[in-house]
Amino acid sequence: MKSAILEAAEDLIAANGLSGAPLAQIAKRAGVAVGTLYNYFADRDALIAALFEMRRATLRPRLRAAVTAGEGLAFEARVRAFVREVFAAFEAHRKFIKVAIETEHHRLTPGTTAKDLMSTIDELVKIGAKEGIVAAERSELLAIAMTGALKALVLRRISSNAKLDDAEADGLVSLLLDGARA
Q1: Domain containing 118: what range?
Q2: What is the band of 125 on the pLDDT scale with cuts at 50, 70, 90?
Q3: What is the model's pLDDT at position 70?
Q4: 106 and 159 share one domain
Q5: Quick one: which of 11, 42, 37, 7 has its CA closest to 24?
Q6: Same domain, 37 and 60
Q7: Quick check: 88 and 145 in contact, CB under 8 A?
Q8: Alpha carbons within 13 A on the beta-carbon side of 97
Q9: Is residue 159 within 8 Å of residue 101, measured between CB atoms?
């Protein structure tokens, strides 16, 4: 029942925005009474926090797996594989990404997905610095630029209902690494 409510909230917020997803509509979409919704969540903020926690439980392992997926590859190929996997994870959770974008400025829940993304990118860039592919003095700047560029591209594509694809992943990596090579 709880997951049905969370899925309904995700659907409605992604489609209509936060203001277009009152609790009564969320309950109706989930096929429960409003009172039942309140048995699980004290208010809308608690519901959204639970949605973020549920999706984080799915996304965080995918981001972690994206770092290790390219083990054994040369650094640039590994970064390309990582960005492609991040795009695939975000594409698979497109509705949730829309919810995250919609709620980001409302401060309804502490966002950890961005922190998870940054930490995985930091880890990957440190590998490039250790291998001598990325200049050590530019590694922090590259991690920040990569995180910002990924977030900006995802925001643009998700907001415009365009697909995130491998060609853009490769283009983004080329753009970033060409300015960060040792």
Answers
A1: 53-178
A2: very high
A3: 84
A4: yes
A5: 37
A6: no
A7: no
A8: 26
A9: yes
Q: Which of 98, 178, 102, 104 is nearest to 145 (CA)?
A: 178
Rounded mean pLDDT, 130-154: 91
pLDDT tens-digit map of 24-38: 999 999 999 999 999
Cα distances (Å, whole numbers) of residue 172 to 67, 72, 116: 17, 22, 20
- Looking at the fold, whether 74 and 33 belong to one and the same domain comes out as no
> SS3 for 134?
strand
**Side chain identity at residue 51, one-letter code:** L
Q: For residue 66, what are its two tokens? A: 């994206």
- Per-position DSSP letters for 6-33, written without gaps between them: HHHHHHHHHHH-STT--HHHHHHHHTS-
Domain count, the chain: 2
